[in-house]
Amino acid sequence: MTIKADQTLDAKGLACPMPIVKTKKAIGTMEPGRVLEIQATDEGSLADLKAWSEKGGHQYIGTKRDGDVLIHYVRKSSGEEKEEITFPHTISNEELQQKLEAGAQIVDVRESAEFAFRHIPGAVSVPLGELEDRMAELDKSKETYVVCRTGNRSDLAAQKLEANQFQHVKNVVPGMSKWDGPVEEN
Amino acid sequence: MMAVTAWNAADVAKRVIEKKDVFVLDVRNEDAFADWKIESDSFTYKNVPYFDLLDGVEELVPELPKDKEILVVCAKVGSSQMVAEMLADEGLDVAYLEGGMKAWSEHLEPVKIGDLPGGELYQFVRLGKGCLSYMAISNGEAAIIDATRMTETFTSFAEEKNVTIKHVFDTHLHADHISGGREIAEKTGASYWLPPADAEEVVFDYEKLTDGTSVAIGETTIGINALYSPGHTIGSTSFVIDNRFLLSGDILFIDSIGRPDLAGKAEDWVGDLRETLYTRYRSLAEDLIVLPAHFMIMDEVQDDGSVQEKLGVLFKENHGLNIENEEAFRSLVTENLPPQPNSHQEIRQTNMGRLNPDDEKKREMEIGPNRCAVKA
Question: Record's PANTHER family (chain A) (predicted)?
Fold first, then answer.
């Protein structure tokens, strides 16, 4: 599966500091929460991008390798940590772990790049921005657990699902940032 | 706009040895800086990652000294050059390091240790990593001991001195840096010597370096005599050159002693280490000049840039040689050891010829400080 990004930056063949200089510029023009793919050949770009993302509040998602090319994914800071969780039905990470065997419907509403690097086995990837259009792919009658990184995007998604007659919706809190159960990657 | 100057690694080495006041602005990320930096007692440091300076250096300027040389350093060169130019735009005189920490890690500074019959003995000081290599020269011939992978430096030096490299030795199978010994031997047709006890898994041919091996170079035949001295590794061998110099490998350093755990056998080798340091070395002449394969701290570097001390002085001052109690010694060298060098397993495999990483990978494997010693 190819990993989807909202924007791609070609920094191949560029030496430090250019990959980060260009990344900073590109991120500056993007909407909060969007994912940037950065293609680079400078090995040092990996450590620097991680450190730079952390400082700037951006989310470093992961890096794939294609031959000599490092393909990094960074999600622009969305400020979501500050938002409030309002959907009343929640389930903790630990409780969800108990339910994995039962074949519950787990909907992961993070961006596809975040999902690709690390997700709960069996979870369905439906990024929040696509939820409206793809709701028909989901089963309204099943117990549905909505997960994201910190519980905020899933909070919005849970509200949307309930408004669309999904019967048993729960928001997983806090979500993947603290998930220590089984995971897989694409 | 003020001037930006490029310094090469030799320019920096000179200032380290001469103990100049230099202010290092290291613009690598914080982890890299915490792991290793240009070490000098006379330098002062500030670490600000270059990516924190992309919007400008105005806030940084007041924190920089007016009365010192300022050197901007990064991993390779690009970021330091960028930051140096930004500082120059703010009216500062600054330098950046050509080739960055990569060049610093690979720089070898040759220092003459003394005269030999018909020649000289040189120490190659790798300030960026603390490795010490040696070249003994006599009447047109040379022997190299514990060469680092920057083989050009050794072969060019030999050419400059108009000598033929006849023998290349490694005192042991190194775990902290990649040996250049075999490559030099292949390039020059010299013999490559390794202690067989360390070489059980090597995949190339070599000459067996054993206790009492004696090799002569030059017409006046200065002797290089091998002395079996296990402990850091089971095969570790020391050399006595011209009855004046003791090349102690990674067994004995100036301010510390070798660690026995890098091949995973601390418990097995601790007895050998003690025997070597407390019995075998004790039987040697005290006026031998000890020349180790490493130094750990700048205090060990003399004013002329060399690393050396009389064996008798070390018996008095090196704490690792003065632990009467065997149990205390055992616990010193097997417990609470510093972290093992980065990539030490891969480096050992490379030195056995079982891995063949490219140059970029070799550099990466060697990044960081060497950690071959135990300090009491």
Answer: FAD-DEPENDENT OXIDOREDUCTASE (PTHR43031), SULFURTRANSFERASE YTWF-RELATED (PTHR43031:SF17)
- Per-residue tens of pLDDT for chain B, all 376 residues: 568 999 999 999 999 999 999 999 999 999 999 988 999 989 999 999 999 999 999 999 999 999 999 999 999 999 999 999 999 999 999 999 999 999 999 999 999 999 999 999 999 999 988 999 999 999 999 999 999 999 999 999 999 999 999 999 999 999 989 999 999 999 999 999 999 999 999 999 999 999 999 999 987 677 788 899 988 999 999 999 999 999 999 999 999 999 888 777 778 889 999 999 999 999 999 999 999 999 988 889 998 999 999 999 999 999 999 999 999 999 988 887 877 777 888 999 999 999 999 988 898 888 766 666 676 5
Q: Judge whether A52 is closer than 8 Å to chain B, CB to CB.
A: yes
Chain A residue numbers touching B77 (CB-CB < 8 A): 15
DSSP class per residue in B303-349: TTS---EEHHHHHHH-GGG----HHHHHHHHHSSPPPPPTTHHHHHH
List of E strands, B175-334: 191-194, 207-208, 214-217, 222-228, 237-241, 245-249, 257-258, 289-292, 309-310
pTM higher than the cut 0.80: yes
Return the active site residues of A. Answer: 16
Contact B237, B197 (CB under 8 A): no
The ipTM value here is 0.79
Q: A11 and chain B: CB distance < 8 Å anywhere?
A: no
Rounded distance between C-alpha atoms, residue B39 and residue B128, angstroms: 7
Contacts of A29 (CB under 8 A, 6+ apart): none
Cβ-proximal residues to B152 (8 Å cutoff; 6+ apart), any chain: none
* A24 closest CB neighbour out of B31, B54, B79: B54
Q: To the nearest 10°, report the CA torsion of B186, B191, B195, B200.
A: 50
Q: Of the candidates A17, A24, A47, which has its C-beta nearest B78's C-beta?
A: A17
Q: Which domains does chain B have, with CATH numbers?
A: 4-103 (3.40.250.10), 108-374 (3.60.15.10)
**Pair of tokens at residue A8:** 């791609």
Q: Does A53 touch chain B (CB under 8 A)?
A: no
How far apart, in Å, are the Cα atoms of B50 and each of A3, A16, A32, B46, B317?
29, 10, 24, 12, 43
Alpha-carbon Rg for chain A in angstroms: 17
B chain contacts of residue A17, beta-carbon cutoff 8 Å? 50-51, 54, 74, 78-79, 82
Residue B29 C-alpha, separation from nearest chain A C-alpha, in angstroms: 6
Of A16, A43, A47, Cβ closest to residue B79: A16
Q: Tell me which residues of chain B have a C-beta less than 8 Å from any C-beta of chain A.
A: 29-32, 49-52, 54, 74-79, 82, 360, 364
- Domains of chain A, CATH where assigned: 7-75 (3.30.110.40), 80-178 (3.40.250.10)
